[in-house]
Each structure stands twice: as structure tokens, then as C-alpha cells.
Amino acid sequence: MRLFIMTCWILGYLLFLVGCNTSTDHTNSYAAIINYNNQQYIGGQSVDTKQYTDIQPVGEIVQRVDEEVYPSAHLMSNAVDKGTEVFETLNHHLLIKQLNGEYQLFTSKDVEVKS
Q: I want to staple 106 with a disulfide (CB 3.0 to 4.6 A). Which of 48, 56, 68, 94 is the partner?
């Protein structure tokens, strides 16, 4: 009987220790942001540029900061590499050409995207 009680106590203690695990192995995710004219543009889906009839180049990313850092200056990004060309659409969205040849759409935090 003592063996049974001791086994239950040890198992209970081990379950308590596992429940109190304070592991800090958390994965954070951050929005892809481009600062353009002091406005925040958030990265979204890949798009076909054929749906945009008139896109104009507006510059290149001048600096890429760490993903957890807010890009605080014009044409700075926390997700897009330095030197990547940035285009603006007629409806004031931004596009960047990805390595796979597709374009990623960035929309202003204040602008609603219409599909």
C-alpha cells in the first residue's frame, strides 16, 4: 500500500513540474511593413500585375531593419530587402517584385483593399 501511495505522489509531483514549465520557446510573427511617405503599408498576398493597368516606380527600399523593428523612415522596411524596387498603383497600393517573379501587394493601414 505504501508503494502505491509513493508512486501516486511521485507521478503527481512530476505532473506538477511539467505543468509549471516556463519554456520561452515562443515564435513571434510580425507584419511585413513598408514605410512610404511616413505611412505604414502592410504586406499581403501575391497578386497578378495584369489587374493593375498603370503602375509607376516610386523608388527602392533604402534600408531593411530587423523584423521586430518598426521601419521609421521613408522607403524603409522590416521585410523587404534593400534595393528592391517599389511600385505604386493608381489606387495607391504598393507592389514589390518578389524573387519568384510574383508581386506582393502592400496596402495602407488606412485603405481598404477591394478584390
A: 94
